[in-house]
TrEMBL record:
It comes from Paenibacillus rhizosphaerae. One of its GO terms (cellular component) is cytosol. Coiled coil: none annotated. The keyword Phosphoprotein applies. Gene3D superfamilies: 3.40.50.2300, 6.10.250.690, Winged helix-like DNA-binding domain superfamily/Winged helix DNA-binding domain. Keywords: DNA-binding, Phosphoprotein, Transcription, Transcription regulation, Two-component regulatory system. InterPro entries: CheY-like_superfamily, OmpR/PhoB-type_DNA-bd, Sig_transdc_resp-reg_C-effctor, Sig_transdc_resp-reg_receiver, WalR-like, WH-like_DNA-bd_sf. Residues 126-227 bind DNA. It comes from the Bacteria. This is DNA-binding response regulator. GO terms for molecular function: phosphorelay response regulator activity; transcription cis-regulatory region binding.
Length: 230
């Protein structure tokens, strides 16, 4: 059964969508805001997110970008904004499809099935990420990491940190960004905990942790994953 997260602050609309999803055989979960949606995503995997852009606690486009950075989960945006420029912008920040309110629930179900079919085909090609001519390999389907073809043991936070950075190779992340993506919005500790996670990761995946090839420090900015040639 495919699991779908419905992020919509209007209760009546959310109830209608959830009812149709369950009628069509989907497992539907609900979130009324950005922070609650992020917590749901951190606690369990979803096959698709239906994301309303007008949320009470966060801009929906901002949440879309955060989801896209941390997870491969497909996203269908739901919005009352119908102009071409709004649709183009929504797709440019990471949405897989875009539906304008009001919409026919049957059309929404059809769009969901289409996006799921397309992303399923893509996932077959993206289960394994390899770097350094195969020296580092991440099997995102099995949630297993290999160094020199040998499996290594990572904590859940270490694995998520590595996967987020590897999927966004060459992007520099601040500590605060990594805290939100790995630990969640509700984390209220010291952002320097990311430094310890990076140190632990380097010990496990780098040949020389003091001169890392994969996880680079960008002084004054944060960290960047080197996915190119070593």
């Amino acid at each position: 059964m495919r699991r779908i997260l419905v992020v919509e602050d209007e209760e009546k609309i959310r109830e209608v969508i959830v009812a149709y999803l369950r009628k069509e055989g989907f497992e539907a979960h609900e979130a009324s805001g950005g922070e609650s949606a992020w917590s749901e995503l951190a606690n369990q995997p979803f096959d698709l997110v239906l994301l309303d852009l007008m949320l009470p606690d966060m801009n929906g486009e901002e949440l879309c970008q955060k989801i896209r950075t941390a997870y491969p989960t497909p996203i269908i945006m739901l919005t009352a904004k119908s102009s071409v420029s709004h649709r183009i912008h929504g797709l440019s920040v990471g949405a897989d499809d875009y539906m304008v309110k009001p919409f026919d629930p049957q059309e929404l179900i059809a769009r969901i099935r289409t996006v799921l079919r397309r992303t399923n085909q893509q996932e077959l090609l993206a289960d394994r990420l390899e770097y350094g001519e195969g020296r580092l390999m991440i099997d995102s389907h099995a949630k297993q990491v290999f160094v020199q073809h040998k499996p290594i043991s990572l904590t859940p936070s270490e694995y998520k940190l590595l996967l987020v950075m590897a999927r966004n190779s060459e992007r520099t992340f601040s500590r605060e960004e990594l805290i939100e993506l790995v630990m969640g919005f509700e984390f209220d500790g010291d952002s320097r905990i990311i430094d310890q996670h990076v140190k632990n990761l380097r010990q496990k995946i780098e040949e020389d942790p003091k001169n890392p090839l994969f996880i680079r420090t960008v002084f004054g900015a944060g960290y960047r994953f080197n996915g190119g040639s070593l």
